[in-house]
Each structure stands twice: as structure tokens, then as C-alpha cells.
Amino acid sequence: MTGPEPNRQAIMLALERLLSWPEIARSPQLARFLDYIVRRKLDGEEQSVKAYSIAVDVFGRSTDFDPQADPIVRVQARRLRRLLDEYYQGPGLGESAQIRLPVGRYIPDFVVQAEGEMPAPAPLVPPRGEPVRGRTGRLPSSWFALAVLTLGTALGAYALGEWGRARENVAQPANALQRPTVGIVEFQNLSTDAQLRPQVSGLAIELVTDLEQFRTIGTRYAGTGEASAIPADQPISDFMLSGIVRLDGGVVQYSAILTEMGTGGVVWNHTLAIDPDAAMAPGVLDDVAKSFALVLGSPRGPLHAPARLMLASNGAEQGAVSLYLCRVLFDLYRETGGAAEAGRADVCFSALPETDKQTAEALAATASLVVEQGGPSMAVETSLADRFRIAEANLQRALSLDPVNGFVWEQQARLHQAEGAFDLARDDFASAVQLNPANADVLAGFARLLALGGSLSEAEPMALDATEGSPSPPPWYFGVPALLALRDGDLPRAIESAERYAEADRELGPILAIMAAQRSGDSAVVNRYLPQILDVPAFRAKGVLPRLRERISDGALLAAIRNTLVAAGVPPQALVRSF
Hints:
Blueprint: E1 2-3, H1 8-20, H2 22-25, H3 28-42, H4 51-57, H5 72-89, E2 97-100, E3 109-113, E4 133-134, H6 143-166, E5 181-184, E6 188-189, H7 203-212, E7 218-221, E8 239-248, E9 251-260, E10 266-274, H8 276-279, H9 284-296, H10 305-314, H11 323-336, H12 339-350, H13 354-357, H14 360-373, H15 384-401, H16 406-418, H17 422-435, H18 440-452, H19 456-469, H20 479-488, H21 491-502, H22 508-520, H23 523-534, H24 537-542, H25 544-549, H26 555-568, H27 572-576
Parallel strand pairs: 5-7, 5-8, 6-8
Antiparallel strand pairs: 1-3, 2-3, 4-10, 8-9, 9-10
């Protein structure tokens, strides 16, 4: 329950508190954005608060700014909205005068929070259990799922027929050499209960905004999906995303379905069950959009399946290359960390036209390849210091070209982490999460940095989002889940997660497996991984603990590792010096 709108003085004090909060203060652009929209509303100039005026007055865009071509205002509004929600659920909890930014608007709301009111949203149902969904494209065997399938197929067939008749040059089905494009249709609200009207309006826009942040996907808002609403000169998208919302069994179900336009076939569906109270709150759209985007935006999601299949079948680098294809190869490298995958990605980026090589995406990706793999196309004698300098230059150039690109911030975070600048890496990862909260690689990478720095509880929600919310999580995601299971005493799960993590991290993965196995009395696991630890080149060159201190800043974790290895029989000298 909120009271009347607070007065100007109360709002200016609320604004001052927000601008001094470190999460906003460290981003001058967001601070200017917030100050701009608040003062405009206080001065009665709400009609002038448009995407164009914000872009020009706040973000320094030129007067020929096109809101359709440049999403900076939508992206930054989403960042600001999330930070405002975070502030009033954390350090600002209980403040009476609050500044909120509604979904789909740039004009803030000024509200008085009623005494004792708790603004935190109700959780999804189940809180962290597996939501009702079919990630492989197989729908659940229920009449409701059949209705979703029928709706999606009908919309797809209608769009194919009507759009095809409206144009002579119909776009071909998904081209694996170019980034996939998806048209997002407004979800239909099938709830008939006048007392329960779950939030639906704006979900399609939220999804467009979320998926736009994956620069490997082209998105378009498709309204109601009717052919008459689509400009005749606009090509058909490769895929269409549609959905329905309905009340079923005491929960609200948000169901999405992805249709391939070339065939009319359903390639993916996903259903979320949400508590009715949460479904009526505006913030629910962020959660729903993020859940869908965690799958659709993933490199392992259905939108990128054609490109990955082509790369698996014929290599593709032997023929035509594209920036999109190079990004897919880079994502394959990120999943495995292997030199072979790094080499394929490096060859692809090297073969790009010069204009594509100088894009923010290419510069950031090649910066990571240089640091992590030495740059397969670079001279062998290039020193680590030189590699760092090359990567830093590439990333600075990338950020100047595209400062709201979460992928670029992620690669900078990894560079700072490799350099041992953990505080800088934390800030970079925080920026990447703000820009793209549905990027599972960012969530998993940030969670690992936090966990190894002693902030395991802070890492937990991001690690669980990455492993439970994204499809086919790669082994390197499972380091934090192994630590969480150790913390909770769930030793079978700790061993399972550690063994998966050991596939990607030959240093820390076996150690975590031994820690769990010792506690559970599983000597077979200890015997299996102990020789692997003694065979790690970096451990042999520096000693186990000196090497781990380059990665881990949590003293308690390092002490636990030391005790574990001593008990397992690792020679004491191997712990502290080369061997």
C-alpha cells in the first residue's frame, strides 16, 4: 500500500541518497540518467522525457539519433530499473520516499512506502526447483501444452502464409552463417479472473531488450504477429517467439514457444509457474524475461543450433566466415577452454574483413584469446606482459566503440582476473551482469570470482541461475556448486559437481573432489585425483599453494585446501615450493 506522492524536498533527498549509493555512483552515465529524469518530472516536463532527448542530453548521442537502431536508452533504463529495485530491497529498505522506474517507461514514479510494507517480490514457484518446461522441444503431455503448441503453430503458419503473400522476396530459413533473427510477439493473457490479472503487457518488449544484449541474436518487436503490422520492406525473422499466460492449479503459468519460420515447426517451449501475488507485481516481467533469455540467449540454446550443427559437420572455417560464426566458435572455446577450439576461433577472427576485425565483439574476443591461450596466431616468444598490454589495448578500443556491451565487460573482467586485479574484475563483472543479467557465462564467471574471494553466499544465486537456468551447462560452471555442496555437507553432490568441474579446471577441480571424498570416506576418489594434482605443470613449477594464491584470495578456503592435501599425503615441500 502506498500513500500520496511525496513532496519535492523528500524526492530530492531520495535522489541524493541514490546518487551516493556506490552501485549508482560508480556509473556516471546512470547517475546522470537518474538525475535527468527525476528533475524533469519535478519541473513538470514529463512530456519531454523521451528516448531521443535522453540519448542526446544524457548519453551524448548526436541529433540524428535513431532509437530503433541504437538501444542505449532501453539498455540503460533496464540497468537503472534493476538497481533501483536492488536498492529498495537492500540499503534503502524501509525508506518512505522512493523513486521507481516502471517497466516500459522513462518517467519515474514517486511513491511513499507505507510503514511496514515489504517491497521484496514473492518468489517463483517452486523457488529453485525445476520449472515446468521442455527444453528439448518435446512438450509435456497435457492438454494445456497441446494448446500452447497449437497456438504457436497456428501463429507460425499464419505468419508464413500472410507474410509470404505480402512480399515477393521472402527471406530464407535460418542461415547458419549469420546471426539468427527472432520476431517477438505479444503474449496473450488468457486469465478470466477479474481479481487476478497477471502482468503481461510489456513482456515482449522486455524479451526484445534482454535478447538484444546477446549481440549474436537479432531481435524485432512483432506486436500481435499480424502481417499488416509489419513493414513490407522488412525481412521475415528466422524464428518467432510467442506465448500465453493463464491461471492453472493455483499458479500463473507463463508459456513461451519458439517457431522456425522456414518450416513452421516448433523448436522449443518453456513454461514457468509463478505465485499469483508475484504475477501481479510489475517486477515479475524481469524474472520471466530473464528465465526465457537464459535459454534463448545461451550459445547452447535453440537459436544457435543450426550454426553449431554446421560447425560440427563440416568445420565451416574452410569456406565463408562471418563475425557471427567466429563468435559461435569463441563460445565453443569458452565452454571447453581447449587449445583446439581456441585455434579454430583465432583462425576465424583472422580471416574476417578488416571492418569486422575492428568491431567491439571481435576485439574483445581476440583479447581473451591472447591472454588465455597466448594468441594461437601470435609469435611463440610473446611474453605474458606483452600479451596483457595487447589485450588491454583491444579492450579499451572495444569499450570506446560499444560501452554498453556486456560481452566486452565480461572479457575485461577475465583480463583483470588473470592479472590478479580482483577488485577491478569484480566491478567489470558487475557491469556485465547489469547490462545482461541473462548471460549464463557472466553469471558463472562472476560467481566463481566471488566464491574464490570468500563471498560464497553472494555467489550462490548467480551460480544456481547459471547451472539450473541455462541449457547443458559446461563443466566449468560447477566449481561454485561444488563449494556450495561442501558448505552444506551434501557430499555426494559435492563429489559429483567437483568431478564435473575437474574436466575444465585441472588445478582446483581435483582438489575439491578430494576434499569431498575425504569427508565422505571415499578413498577411491582420493586415489584417482591425487596423482593428477602432483602432475599439474603450474603446481610443479611454483608449488601448490603459491599457485593457488594467484587465483584464490579466501584465506579460509586456502587453509582448508592445505589441510586436505596434507591429510591426503601430498609431500609438504610440494605445497610451498616447486617440485
